[in-house]
Write a structure and sequence with these properties.
The complex is a heterotrimer of chains A (325), B (116) and C (113).
Chain A lengths: L2 E3 L4 E9 L1 H4 L8 E2 L10 H19 L9 E5 L6 H7 L6 E3 L6 H14 L5 E8 L1 H8 L15 E2 L2 E8 L5 E7 L14 H20 L8 E4 L3 H16 L6 E3 L15 E2 L3 H10 L7 E9 L3 H5 L6 E10 L2
Chain B lengths: L1 H22 L4 H17 L2 H9 L1 H4 L2 H27 L5 H17 L5
Chain C lengths: L1 H13 L5 H21 L3 H8 L1 H4 L2 H14 L5 H8 L5 H22 L1
Helix pairs in contact in C: 1-2, 2-5, 5-6
Classes of the chains: A alpha/beta (325), B mainly alpha (116), C mainly alpha (113).
């Protein structure tokens, strides 16, 4: 079965860094923000690694933990060989598990952390992810200064880093379950339309989760999707209704919740950091959300195979969080 | 008058390019490459020199002109030195564009960083 | 779009002090220089968003792609960075331009002979 229930896993603390565009957008409650894309580093890739290292440092300091108190560091990002995460991890003597699920990396890392805690193999785990608009642009698309025009369905990679500590000690936020999605390929080749690429995988994972947990969509106060974008979230709702026969009314898309209209970010934000950023800055801050389902949506595309004329597969992972009162 | 023709012609070509960019999966790279080849073809067909004559800068500023210069360079090379002349002459007329682009890009890149 | 090209034409006519053939070359050079500088200042990509194809198709597009590529890969070193990536975007135009011109030239020669 693709869903796993957890009884002993709790979310302890979080730390979020936002980029220059994000801090001027719709979200508040960042722990730290960047004024520029370099963040005291020489290159964008190094700045992304620095952001992650800063998140981990702050998580440790805030809880007065030593590195030895953390059993595992689990994380990933969008860059080649998840280098931002690896190069941040080298600063810490914590056993490191690198994971990749594109923009679904965050729920995937929570799944692994929670599984380790539930099986009594860990006491505390740090889950971390990041993305950087310009390092992603360099890798997947064009040089940063190149004025490439994008269609309105395109999403722009968000900049930021978010880390959380999962623990066995009881706190107010419990990780109740997770569902690992299947990789779905609907035959789409358009890299500027990630919403369409990811929506079917998202729908499949939501449906599977609800079936396995014997719940309905309305049992949750909110379903937070990762980065479908304004266009993608409408595709999700239509697709879900057509294929599974019920309406998803309480869906909020993280990617669409970060930027103001005036910031001109086309269909919204994308990147692994969207989902945790909105989760921490908006959802967890709002006392009316108790039963939360986060669904990270990852498009598993690679420039190499796209150039070889392949289609884009995608995967979505879900995690159920309950804020206890 | 030549200003008007220049305006209309380059506007027309750019408009075609924009329509293609918006409605097909082709990227800017595809379009520029296609136009370069088209420029070489129009030069071969004898059309492009006429365009330069009558539309002046409107024809020389476009990337089609690059293809045109490549063809002209090759042909004049052939006329002066035979088959080898095609190879030795090809890049001569377009040298200004390529060399200046390389030199200016390089020098400026030493001093400036990408920002967005 | 057309407005941009007209501005470029004016520039060309302005340098008319030289002979016509030379002034075409100098105009080209000026356009490339201005484009590279605007790219370096980080301004050109905003202009492209507004001008779209109007700025990509002329020689400005070529110069802009080269300038942005060299700037971006500067941090990867002179050889591996700038050296390998400078022509990343412009390369296909040059490559296929030369190939096409070559074939047309052969064709032209055969047809005239």
């Amino acid at each position: 079965m693709s869903s796993v229930r957890f009884n002993k896993v709790y979310l302890d603390s979080h730390f979020v860094i936002g980029g220059p565009k994000e801090k001027n957008g719709k979200l508040d409650n960042f722990d730290l923000t960047m004024d520029d894309y370099y963040f005291h580093a020489k290159t964008f890739e190094k700045s992304e690694a620095n952001m992650q290292a800063l998140v981990i440092e702050n998580l440790l300091i805030n809880k007065k933990y030593k590195e030895s108190d953390i059993d595992f560091l689990i994380g990933g990002d969008l860059l080649n060989q998840i280098c931002a995460t690896s190069y941040s991890a080298r600063n810490f003597k914590i056993p490191f598990i690198g994971v990749y699920a594109a923009c679904a990396t965050f729920p995937l890392s929570i799944f692994h952390g929670a599984s380790l805690i539930e099986s009594d193999n860990a006491q505390n785990v740090i889950c971390i992810t990041s993305s950087h608009g310009l390092s992603a642009e360099r890798q997947y698309r064009y040089p940063v200064e190149y004025g490439n025009t994008k269609p309105n369905t395109a999403t722009c990679t968000a900049t930021g880093a978010v880390g959380v500590i999962l623990t066995k000690q009881k706190t107010k936020m419990q990780i109740k379950a997770a569902t690992i999605g299947k990789t779905i390929d609907m035959g789409i080749k358009d890299v500027n339309h990630m919403g369409a690429v990811m929506a079917p995988a998202c729908a499949d994972t939501i449906y599977t989760h609800l079936q396995n947990m014997k719940k309905r969509a309305t049992d949750y106060d909110v379903i937070l999707t990762g980065d479908l974008g304004k266009v993608g979230v409408n595709i999700l709702k239509e697709y879900y209704e057509k294929v599974y026969g019920s309406k998803l009314l309480n869906v909020i898309d993280a990617g669409s919740s970060i930027y103001l209209e005036s910031q001109n970010m086309y269909a919204g934000g994308s990147g692994p950091v969207c989902l945790p950023m909105v989760l921490v800055c908006k959802i967890l801050q709002n006392p009316r959300y108790h039963k939360i389902l986060i669904v990270g949506t990852g498009s598993l595309h690679t420039p190499v195979l796209i150039n070889q004329n392949e289609t884009i597969p995608s995967v979505a992972h879900a995690v159920e969080i309950e804020v206890l009162s | 008058m030549i200003y008007l023709y220049a305006f209309l012609f380059s506007g027309f070509v750019c408009m075609i390019g924009q329509i293609v960019l918006d409605n097909t999966k082709l990227t800017a790279g595809h379009i520029t490459t296609a136009l370069t080849i088209l420029g070489a073809f129009l030069s071969f067909a004898g059309v492009y020199p006429w365009l330069v004559e009558h539309i002046g800068g409107g024809a020389t500023v476009l990337i089609m002109n690059f293809g045109h210069l490549l063809y002209q360079g090759a042909i004049s090379g052939f006329k002066s030195a035979g088959l080898i002349g095609i190879f030795s002459g090809m890049l001569t007329k377009s040298s200004i564009a390529i060399t200046s682009a390389i030199i200016f890009s390089f020098i400026l890149s030493l001093f400036f960083n990408p920002k967005d | 779009m057309g407005i941009i090209s007209e501005g470029l034409i004016n520039l060309y006519m302005m340098i008319f002090g030289y002979s016509r053939a030379d002034s075409m070359g100098v105009a080209c050079l000026t356009i490339i220089l201005v484009t590279c500088m605007l790219t370096a200042f980080g301004v050109f990509d905003n202009l492209v968003e507004k001008g779209k194809c109007g700025l990509i198709i002329p020689t400005t597009g070529f110069a802009h792609s080269m300038a942005s590529a060299t700037m971006d890969y500067k941090k990867d070193g002179f050889i591996k960075g700038i050296g390998s990536n400078a022509f990343k975007l412009a390369g296909s135009a040059i490559l296929y331009g030369v190939v096409a011109a070559f074939f047309f030239c052969i064709l032209g020669v055969l047809l005239n002979v």
